[in-house]
Please model this.
Amino acid sequence: MPACGLRGRVYSRIQGGAPLCGAVPMERKRKEEVDMTNILLEKKGYIAVATINRPKALNALNSEVLSDLDELVATVKADDEIRALVITGSGEKAFVAGADIGEMSTLTKEGGTAFGKHGNDVFRAIETLPIPTIAAVNGFALGGGCELSMACDIRICADTPGFGGTQRLARLVSPGMAKQLIYTAKNIKADEAYRIGLVNAVYPLEELMPAAEKLAETIAKNAPIAVRACKKAINDGLQVDMDKAIVIEEELFGSCFQSADQIEGMSAFLEKRKHEPYQNK
Model:
């Protein structure tokens, strides 16, 4: 996880977790909270909200946070009821402002490499979670914070944050724009992030989390087997040429058949009735 010096600061990668938030069916709405040292995991129905909780350090990444993120990913993957994950930061200043400089300043070359690999592994684990992930960017998302948001499927942000990052940026906004931002060490505001396609939507800060949870709930209402297949088809297809991508799509399309949710969904369509809540089987 390389750090990038921007405007005299050093930014590194950070990650967050996810809680469950109310989804379908409404009568199953329940609320459950799980605490880790640096991450708050809240479960509401079929969605989860994970909050990186180091507000005094602007939610900066250190080894403890990375370890908590490892645990978070494992927790979310093991919970079959979680159908969508929202990741955000605590406080109103930062989503994730960067790495913990105090810890990084003491690292040797070998220690820095190990720290970077741990961060990269965590980001990749979030990126490859089977369920959809939403980054609710509530403040500065610099370096690692930007990388974390880009590891999520969807990014929405408040109208206050600044952005800056490296590896995934070129894949989202074009190599030329990414190089311009990185070479000039320029942080951009929410409106510019939206203009270049880095974020999907911008909201006033007080509307951000309600919007994120509503989006997660909308996703969670859809057939989860099909949603997971769609995510895998898109992500895996982007790594290969079009001919191979089509084969990936065909196989995942076929995998959705003979499930209880597929049978119920198609039967309801043909019978012109509302489908029963999807059961993830």
